[in-house]
Amino acid sequence: MASVQSYTFGCIILHVLTYQLFYLSAQSRMDRGHCCVKLSVKPSRGLMDEKFIVLVQNVPPGFQLTIHALHKCEDGHSWEAFAHYTANAAGTVNVSEDPSLGGTFSGVEQMGLLWSLRPVPGSKPALRMRKENVQTPMEVAISGYQGHQTEGFTDQVQLAGTVVERWYMAPGVRRVPITEGGLTATLFLPPGPGPFPGLLDLWGGGGKLVEYRAALLASHGFASLALDYLTPKITIETGKMVDNSYFETAYRVLEQHPQILGSRIAMLGLSFGTSITLKMAVYSKVMKLRCAVSISGSHVQPIHGSVEQMLNAFNENASKIRINEENQVICRDLTLPIPTEPALKVDVGRLQCPLLLVVGEDDQNWAAYEAAMDIKDMMERAGNSHLLTILSYPNAGHLIEPPYTPHVRASAYRSVNTHEKIVALWGGETVAHSRAQEDAWRKTLVFLREHLYGGRNPGATSLSHL
Amino acid sequence: MLRVHMSVTAIRQLIGVKTVQCASVCRSVACLHRAGGGVRWKSSYKQAPLLTATPVRGLIDEQISIKGRFLRPHCPVTVCAQMHSEDGDLWEAFAHYNTKADGTIDLTRDHSVGGTYLGCEPMGLFWGLQPAPGAREGLRLRKKNVETPFVVLMSLLEGHVSPSEGQSTELAAVTTERWYMAPGVRRIDIRQDGLVGTLFLPPGPGPFPAMLDLWGMGGGLVEYRSALFASRGYASLSLAYIGHKELPGPQNKLNVDDLYFKSAYHFLQDHDQVCGDRVGIIGLSFGVFLTLRLATQSGLKPSCVICINGPIGSTISLPGGRSVSFEERNSKYWTYNDQGHVSFKDISLPANISPESKVKLEFLASPLMCIVGEDDLSTSNIENADVIEETLRNVGKSHLLTRLSYPGAGHLIEPPYTPNSRASLWSVKPKKLITLWGGQLAPHAAAQEDAWKKILDFMESHLRQ
Q: Which residues does B34 contact at the CB level (< 8 Å), separation at least 6?
């Protein structure tokens, strides 16, 4: 009995010693092998909407590792993401294949290190990440740390680190500021002689000239014009908002450009940009759109109204705006209930080009989902619903943007018509929202390619495969 | 002969249309015309032709996958690459392919049947770049500013054409960038302790294994190989030793001595971002002599030594004595071909090398990789490599030597996927002189690709394990 006990005891000691030796040798291998751990990201220079593979090699099998992403914005704020991994028997961690055990995301998430980025502790509240200068890449430092860390990354010694560049402009894309016709706009031309299909790119009520989506679209072969229609130079100087002819001027700039095909121009709008897009698509005598994309918006508006009148209509309904316990402003009720009166919503039954609607079901800023349902209803009754495709995403919020940038549920916002700084609630749950962005972007590109590059008669293409 | 590929719908639309000409048929099936004339897309049914390159921004030593899609099946096409060097010269390459039944070409899979190269050569459009017709004589493609990429325009043309012929229909295009520095690599000017060099550090916390990077008698400060090493995780110091205005003395003479090179090696060893016990040396051409001298003479023990196409001794002594110019000492060994191009090969024949300058290879204690191009017209690399091999064998150190020999490769075995120059301008004064490097286009390219891979593996096993 005693001998068995001592034998068992001996085994235990042996196991403990072996474990300690393994741990020590792993440790010394790590110390010496500071030169050995390899961390790579492929591609190291990619487009913003391109996937990458983060790979760590030459760590001991079973090693606990934290992979950390750090990005410093143009405005000086830092954003970070991190995930916990355990190296496999070959001593590697592959973020596109291995599950994160915790951090700012969990599970197998190839691009989680980008979409789960959040402001570092101590940052100003209500931040949002948006690239202003699209001619330089977004640089993200990706590092590996020993163990499963959750904070204090800047104080720790990295095992390895690298930098990845994320570009909005593909090589050869040209950025051309446009001021003709009183416009405040930027045209992005794909590389090559063309000709290219064109696209008018509109953002929402925050105004300003936002270029990054147009730059990306040009990287995918669409000559895209980012248009500032709420705070253009002409409005700043005269105090007057633009009227509908401003958009028609922008359309003409595209139509008449020697490298753009006048018969293949699309319009894409987000938020208030959707209001403009739908209005122009149905009512403009000048704009002959090949197709339209409307993201997170509504057809509810005074149909004969100018931009100013449309904004005033919101002001009149200001009592419908709600504020939650965190002091975040919820605007979605402004366009509810969906009116039945024809003068109060764009008559989408008269639409003659394919329309892609993208809505987040948790949109707290616009009642986009409800609008999409009403649009569908109107088009079915009018007999043109074959033109309509709806992409509706549960738990996605308002800001459905190109993929792999961080989701924020709320952020500081100053609308051009209220001028007050608020924190707007956009909505969305991060994982679902990020998946929605990836899916919506891919399908938007397919939609645009089909209608702008395909040769069939507009509207004839079935999009059931989307 | 109408070769438009039409859908059933389109054909139905055409029934009832009587005598039609090619152009109007194209119009009625929604063809697209390039502004200024020239039909660009003939097929109405499919998407427009697309040319893709992946990655579109890559490192110089990274393979690019080039594909064409939405083309007509079984049709001749030409893929073309064009770029401007920093000096403004146009370089180009092209290859002829036939599309597959699915209307695609894939340069990693398909065979070129004409043009700059033949056969399956995924990177042929890069290593095959040649000065465009009408270019200046004696050009060599070398990047001076390694912080910006080479921008190469790839285009897909209809038919089997050559780009300089002019009128050919462009079906699609894509612009690629070829970088020497990976994101996060740091470039640092080094002007201390009399050294003239550039240090490249990889991204990350360090410390890193390191390389001392030496080039040949062409002089100056050549950064691109070091930049690539740093992109692969090695700190690397490019060192100038001749032909640089910040070095002492006349630029056409060698005015630095052994101490200069030792100093560079120690600079790396002592640098806080370098693992002092993991430093190697690489040399090309005259740089081989300097490399072997450091490795055998000075009590240094580099972790690895890499020598490409160079001599084990020199006709020029390191001062010490009266420093003379390359030309003064060596012109008696120069030979000329029919075009008046000069070959320096005989300078480094073991018989012509001064015995006192010959490196004491028996003192080598580091693993040595010796690379020779068998068509090297600039150095007697094979003869020198033979001496290295024999000497090491005689002292029982053969295990240290790895010898790589490449038929058809010339003197300038450089990082891969860059074009070789068989000859290039050596000097303009006192008269214009073009020197021969050797190397046949395709074998040299293959040598560069294989050698680079083996160099990196060699560095990995001796600097990282």
A: A193, A194, A195, B40
**How far, in Å, CA of A141 to CA of B183, rounded?**
9
Residues above pLDDT 90, as percent of chain A: 84
Q: Which site among B82, B175, B234 would you substitute to test the A interface, given the most A Cβ atoms closer than 10 Å to its Cβ? A: B175
**Does residue B92 have a pLDDT over 60?**
yes
Active centre residues of B (catalytic): 285, 376, 411
Q: Could you give the CA distance from residue B107 to residue B80 in angstroms, rounded to a whole number?
A: 12
Joined together, the tokens standing for residue B55 give: 């990655």
Q: Three-state SS for A248? A: helix
Nearest residue on chain A to B207, alpha-carbon basis: A35
CA B357/CA A89 separation, integer angstroms:
52
Q: Token match 């002292």: residue?
A: B395
Q: Do B177 and A165 touch (CB under 8 A)?
A: no
Say whether A35 and B30 touch across the interface (CB within 8 A): no
B214 to A256, B237, B287, B349: CA distances (angstroms): 56, 9, 5, 21
Q: What percent of chain A has pLDDT over 70?
A: 90
Give the CA count within 13 Å in the CB-facing half-sphere of B378. 27
What residues in A contact B207, CB-CB < 8 Å?
Answer: 34-35
**ipTM, 2 dp:** 0.86
Residue A3 has a pLDDT of 58
Name the residue among A170, A135, A166, A218 with its Cα closest to residue B56.
A170
Adjacent-strand bridge partners of A121: none
Residues in a beta bridge with B80: B94, B155
Residues, chain B, total?
465
Which A-chain residues 431-460 have CB contacts (< 8 A) with chain B?
Answer: 449, 453-457
H or E segment and range at residue B372: strand B368-373
Under 8 Å between Cβ of A275 and A207? no
If residue B10 lies in a helix (H) or strand (E), which one and from where to where?
A: helix B8-14
This prediction's pTM? 0.88
Residue type, A409: R
For A288-329, what is each residue's pLDDT tens digit? Answer: 999 999 999 999 999 988 999 999 998 899 999 999 999 999
A45 in reach of chain B (CB within 8 A): yes
Question: Nearest by CB to A162, which of B9, B48, B203?
Answer: B203
Yes or no: say if B156 and B40 are a contact pair by the CB < 8 Å rule.
no
Residue B123: name the closest of B168, B58, B49, B170 by CA: B58
- By the 8 A CB rule, do A363 and A270 touch? no
Chain A residues near residue B464 by CB distance under 8 angstroms: 35-36
Assess contact for A183 and A246: CB atoms under 8 A.
yes
CB proximity A43 to B under 8 Å: yes
* A31 at B interface, C-beta within 8 A: no
A165, A170, A195 ranked by CB distance to B34: nearest: A195
The answer to whether B74 touches B99, Cβ cutoff 8 Å, is yes
The CA distance from A263 to A224, in Å, is 15
CA distance A242 to B396: 87
φ and ψ of B392, to 5 deg: -70, -35
Dist. CA B237–CA B189, nearest whole Å: 10
Task: Yes or no: say if B25 and B43 are a contact pair by the CB < 8 Å rule.
Answer: no
